[in-house]
Amino acid sequence: MTAKAFRLVLTGAASALMLAGCASNPPGSAGLSTAETDSAQAGSISAVDCQAFAKRMAAYAQTQRATEQGELLSATPANSFTAANGRAVEADAGEDGEETDAAPTTLPTLPLFSVAQRAGHLPVGWQPWTINRNKIPTRYAMTEVDQRVVVHAQADSSASGLYVPLHDRDAGMVRWSWKTSGIIRNADNSHGPREDSPLRLFVAFDGDKGSLPLKDQLMYEMARLTTGREMPYATLMYIWGGKRAEGSVVANPHTDRVRMIVVDSGTKHANEWRCHERDLRADYRKAFGTDPGRVVAVGIMTDSDNTRSKAESWYGDIALD
């Protein structure tokens, strides 16, 4: 594979958060023969009541805030985010949010936006990720909307994201809320030249790369040499789609190492907060046909580079159980 071909893979939306591999089915994969599975295969729709969701997330945030302030003598892996971890990760990025060449610092858990807040800047603990330095980056900033501290994303023919490298996390439940001002009308997530989305949540998994076909192993090695970072074994992506039905599983057009699940679709709920709870293990099995490895990163991305359009969205707290 030539360096040019490799760069083309990395510039696709599927490679967001450096989570891409090469197009081939993993062992035990469901092996989607079309761009999308039947909605029934994708499992139950994940939207939940936002009022009840907000109460649970507020309790979760209070626990994490207490841990950060040293009010808890001990903490479980699910709530042990500390100020030291936040400072370590923050040091990896410049004050202006520019990505540095330093190796990312892994965290035991996921920093909440409402806890690790810094008005007008990127949230502490979240690192900027650039698909390609030739692409316009999406703008991300902390803001207060609807009486909550969230991340505001603004894309204008742009693509970039934020992510958190994690350490030794089992695949459990993922919970989050988000909102968008509207869909990207000419986007099509199964078609590479139009593969954009106003909202994406990524979860990257570890696995046995030695079991993959040789071309995949070569891709991973080339990525490591080019970026200085290890690529994840597989990536599960939750998106707000424009055309696909909620519950659909979409095979990413750039790489089979990424599978997308449509959890919101269309304009019916535009400008509304949508709250979701997903079972990562169940979703991974449906998408890839096998059990997942450990979670190694979580990220978000709003992109409109392929369709040369605009998108505005908001991300609320994200939690892993």
Structural description of this entry:
This protein is of the alpha+beta class and 321 residues long. The protein has one domain (3-320). Helices cover 19% and strands 29% of the residues. It is built from five helices and 13 strands. The strands form two sheets. Strands 2-5-12-7-8-10-9 form a seven-stranded mixed sheet. It has a six-stranded antiparallel sheet with strand order 1-11-6-13-4-3.
What's the layout of helices and strands?
Layout: H1 3-11, E1 47-48, H2 50-68, H3 83-91, E2 127-130, E3 139-145, E4 148-156, E5 159-169, E6 173-180, E7 200-205, H4 214-227, E8 234-241, E9 249-251, E10 258-265, E11 274-279, H5 280-288, E12 295-303, E13 310-320
Parallel strand pairs: 8-10
Antiparallel strand pairs: 1-11, 2-5, 3-4, 4-13, 5-12, 6-11, 6-13, 7-8, 7-12, 9-10
